[in-house]
Design brief:
34% of the residues lie in helices and 28% in strands. It is α+β, with helices and mostly antiparallel strands and 172 residues long. Residues 1-27 form the signal peptide.
Length: 172
């Protein structure tokens, strides 16, 4: 009798659990904070990615300066329209080196039109205390960003001059 009663209680609990699971599983979920934004951005085509004619990032690698004077160059990112490398010294990140194709973002090239500074004949822009960049052939932005206070504006300019800028200009 006791065993029969235990089976009835167990059966009742399992049916209750099944009903509870079924009801919650079938309930419609309220949209989350980011669901609408995700749907809109998935539908958008403009403003996404990179221009079709943007240069492949792997093409930029040959124009980066070689490691020298105790520095190591470590490539960290390469995608269509962009390539980046860390510049290390004694195992410490001292700067980021990059080349980007402004065909995907023409506004990036406009900041050079009013520049009064040049580096090896290319218009240059200093951004804050840590970034120096130039525009090569009105298309390719070459930038050096300090990651350590010891890497100065003069160092950034020196490393920009080490890029193969003539070769990069002929890429276009």
């Amino acid at each position: 009798m006791l065993v029969k009663r235990g089976k009835q209680i167990l059966a009742a609990l399992l049916i209750s659990l099944l009903l509870l699971t079924t009801t919650t599983a079938c309930a419609t979920k309220a949209p989350g904070r980011f669901d609408q934004v995700q749907q809109e951005s998935s539908r958008q085509r403009s403003g996404q990615a990179v221009a079709r004619d943007a240069t492949q990032g792997s093409e930029f690698n040959k124009f980066f300066p070689k490691a020298a004077d105790g520095y190591q160059r470590v490539y960290t990112q390469e995608k269509k329209g962009f390539a980046q490398a860390k510049l290390k010294r004694d195992g410490k990140d001292v700067a980021l080196l990059s080349i980007s194709d402004t065909s995907s973002n023409p506004a990036a090239a406009t900041k050079y039109s009013n520049s009064d500074k040049t580096i090896i004949g290319y218009p240059a822009v200093l951004t804050g205390n840590t970034r120096t960049s130039i525009l090569v052939d009105n298309r390719y932005q070459v930038a050096v960003i300090s990651r350590d206070p010891s890497f100065t504006a003069s160092d950034r300019e020196d490393w920009i001059e080490r890029f193969n800028l003539r070769g990069l200009a002929q890429l276009n």
